[in-house]
């Protein structure tokens, strides 16, 4: 089994897609007005409108209601990302901070309130863990 994607359900697909295109620098591939994907070499971020939820199971997901998942992106320079997102991100939860496990992380919320972490490994052990 391979983990390939995470899907965010939203009430405003275009707004959320534009936000994540800005965060990642990856252009979205649109399937319909209710579904787009941002494909990275490691995984895909799918963004779907609330009208897609009944296709799986009515009421099984609600937009802007996540309180437990953090979507994470590995970046080359978290401090540069922070500078680039200033003015775009309205809710930085934590500025660039070096975590005890060796990643320099930036935590913020997307327009729907979902937590996003961008990080750069900075210690030798963290760098080795994410070596490609």
Descriptive report:
This protein is of the alpha/beta class and 132 residues long. The protein has 2 domains: 1-51, Signal recognition particle alu RNA binding heterodimer, srp9/1 (2-Layer Sandwich), CATH 3.30.720.120; 66-132, 2,3-Dihydroxybiphenyl 1,2-Dioxygenase, domain 1 (Roll), CATH 3.10.180.10. The protein has helices at 13-24, 53-56, 78-85, 124-129; strands spanning 5-10, 29-32, 35-39, 44-49, 70-74, 92-98, 103-109, 115-121.
Task: Using brief descriptors, characterize the structure shown.
alpha/beta, 2,3-Dihydroxybiphenyl 1,2-Dioxygenase, domain 1, 4 helices, 2 domains, 4-stranded mixed sheet, Signal recognition particle alu RNA binding heterodimer, srp9/1, 132 residues
Number of domains: 2
The strand line-up of the biggest sheet is 1-4-3-2
The CA-CA distance between the termini, in Å, is 20 Å
How confident is the prediction overall: mean pLDDT? 96
Approximate helicity band: 10-25%
Which structural class should the secondary elements be placed in? Answer: alpha/beta
Spell out the blueprint of helices and strands.
Elements: E1 5-10, H1 13-24, E2 29-32, E3 35-39, E4 44-49, H2 53-56, E5 70-74, H3 78-85, E6 92-98, E7 103-109, E8 115-121, H4 124-129
Parallel strand pairs: 1-4, 5-8
Antiparallel strand pairs: 2-3, 3-4, 6-7, 7-8
Summed up:
With 132 residues, the protein is α/β, with parallel strands linked by helices. The chain has four helices and eight strands.
